[in-house]
Write a structure and sequence with these properties.
Elements (H helix, E strand, L loop, with lengths): L3 H8 L8 E3 L2 E3 L6 E5 L6 E6 L3 H17 L7 H17 L1 H12 L3 H22 L6 E2 L6 E9 L2 E5 L5 H14 L3 E5 L6 H13 L6 E3 L4 H10 L5 E5 L2 H13 L4 E5 L5 E4 L6 H13 L11 E5 L3 H14 L18 H16 L3 E4 L3 E2 L7 E2 L2 E4 L6 H4 L6 E7 L2 H8 L7 E5 L3 H10 L4 E4 L32 E9 L1
Parallel strand pairs: 7-8, 7-10, 8-9, 10-11, 12-13, 12-19, 13-18, 17-18, 19-20
Antiparallel strand pairs: 1-2, 3-4, 5-6, 6-21, 14-17, 15-16
Bound molecules: adenosine-5'-diphosphate.
Adenosine-5'-diphosphate binds next to helix 8 and helix 9.
């Protein structure tokens, strides 16, 4: 159980200005520039971080390359890397509350969620890949007797990782842990508005025994630091979670530089489909509300399109509105809050604009749709339900990344699949039904990387997460994620 008094002590601690973490130490930006970090809790300044330049990225990449080539990490025994990463997992777990509170002050996620889904989940991710790394074998190919075909799994080199602000620790760990496990070096660029907890992870990694230069963090604007990383001739792989627009740019940067491999996780407009034969509609309404409104809808797999079979539509929409109105939005560091702050004023304004556009296109605002708790100075929005949304409407096609649910009625399975697949995205989906055959038909018909059946949003490290269509390529989590961070190298030996 989390303790409110302990949280309140941590929330009031000043946060020192932060430098980059490069070659095992904190350093200011070469040009000395800094960025102000505002807390979404009250809109007030929290601290300043280094605003990196291409030169800072250059130093970090050079350090990462040198570390990779001299083998201080890449050539260590798997058993050693395992020990260090397990220690890192322990350190993260020991500091979980501190990390979670720091992250919440930076990005606004409600503390119960941040503690589990950010800090503890990051510890679990490091532990998972630490335990996995010495169970990965090479192969002996089934060749003729007079040759030996060996397939090695070799670390690739320098990994550039660019991560977003919604779950910096969780998503950061999904990239950092498997990359380090396989022996690579990393230069990480966190979102400029959620860098603090990841800088702390870099420091803890060093304390755990990750050698200098192997894990570097350069902070600052995406268009400067992220671009320099993606254009670098010495970064071998780019792993990214963020918007489709940035993902497209990264592919261009790769093409213009060294054809580095790019693995992109680009969000979604995920359909959550409720059939009239759902056994427990009350539970479906509760879970579906959580599936869109938790973390103020700032979740890549959020069930942001609710498709409801027409004969239960009106009752179900009424139920989901009741659930939305019952959720307590408030100070994310108050343990009784169920939903914290929207991440930034820019995001909040974009969310409100989507509601306005939806109304202009004919949808009906059933609940929410406005900024609340303005007196706090923070950025809060009431969970919002829009009904009568047509499949072609803006709000049915574009990712809002806010607490806004778009509801559309459907007639039958065929129409549900057609509407579900009618966007450029394919990340997640939900199916609610008591009919096993229907569940399987929907799993096969809906194009998305993950499909929840009679729930929404459950997951753990054992299963991969990745998108279809324009939601991206490659997978985070599970043993499959390791494939991104190795090169297959064939040795053909004549005997
Ligand atoms: P979001 O809308 O979730 O902020 P972005 O794609 O803008 O999504 O941000 C995700 C990450 O990508 C952040 O770390 C951001 O700084 C970075 N980023 C933004 N623009 C660029 C760019 N032009 N090149 C590289 N990285 C970028």
């Amino acid at each position: 159980m989390l303790d409110q008094a302990a949280i309140d002590v941590l929330r009031n601690q000043p946060v020192a200005e932060q430098g980059h973490f490069v070659n095992g130490a904190f350093a200011a930006s070469r040009e000395g520039a800094t960025l102000e970090v505002l807390s979404p809790i009250d809109g007030k300044p929290l601290t300043r971080i280094a605003s990196g330049t291409a030169a800072d990225v250059g130093v970090a990449v050079e350090g990462a390359r040198k570390a990779f080539e001299d083998g201080r990490w890449s050539k260590t025994a798997p058993a050693h890397r395992k020990k260090v990463l397990l220690k890192l997992a322990d350190l993260i777990e020991a500091k979980a509350l501190e990390l979670a509170v720091l992250g919440v002050r930076d990005n606004g996620t409600e503390i119960n969620m941040a503690f589990k889904a950010e800090a503890l989940s990051a510890a679990g991710t490091f532990r998972y890949y630490a335990e996995a790394l010495d169970k990965i074998y090479g192969e002996i190919a089934p060749t003729a007797d007079n040759v030996l075909g060996l397939v090695h799994r070799a670390p690739v080199g320098v990994v550039g990782a660019i991560v977003p602000w919604n779950f910096p620790l969780m998503i950061g760990a999904w990239k950092i842990a498997p990359a380090l496990a396989m022996g690579n070096s990393i230069v990480l660029k966190p979102a400029e508005s959620a860098s603090l907890s990841l800088l702390r992870i870099a420091e803890l990694a060093s304390e755990a025994g990750v050698p200098d230069g192997v894990f570097n963090v350069v902070t600052g604007p995406g268009a400067v630091v992220g671009e320099a990383l993606a254009l670098s001739m010495d970064v071998d792989i780019l792993v990214f979670t963020g918007s489709g627009a940035t993902g497209r740019r990264l592919l261009e940067y790769s093409a213009r530089s060294n054809l580095k491999r790019c693995y992109l996780e680009l969000g979604g407009k995920s359909p959550n489909i409720v059939f009239n034969d759902t056994a427990d509609l009350a539970k479906a309404a509760k879970v579906s509300a959580a599936g869109i409104f938790r973390n103020s809808g700032q979740v890549c797999v959020a069930g942001s399109r609710l498709l409801v079979q027409e004969d239960i539509h009106d009752d179900f929409v009424a139920a989901i509105c009741r659930e939305a109105e019952a959720l307590k939005v408030g100070d994310p560091l108050d343990l009784s809050s169920q939903i914290g702050a929207v991440h930034s004023l820019t995001q909040l304004e974009a969310d409100l604009k989507f509601v306005e556009t939806a109304e202009a296109e004919g949808a009906e605002r059933r609940t929410g749709g406005e900024r609340i708790l303005t007196e706090t100075g923070g950025y809060y929005m009431a969970p919002t339900v829009m009904s009568g949304v047509k499949p072609g409407d803006t709000i049915a096609r574009k990712e809002v990344f806010g607490p806004v649910l778009a509801v559309t009625a459907f007639k039958d399975e065929e129409e549900a699949i057609r509407i579900a697949n009618g966007t450029e995205y394919g990340l997640a989906a939900g199916i609610w039904t008591s009919d096993l055959g229907r569940a399987h038909r929907m799993i096969s018909g809906v194009r998305s990387g993950v499909i929840h059946v009679n729930t929404y949003g459950g997951s753990d490290m054992t299963v991969p997460l990745g998108g279809m269509k324009q939601s991206g390529n490659g997978h985070d989590k599970s043993l499959h994620a390791l494939d991104k961070y190795v090169d297959l190298k064939t040795a053909w030996i004549q005997l």
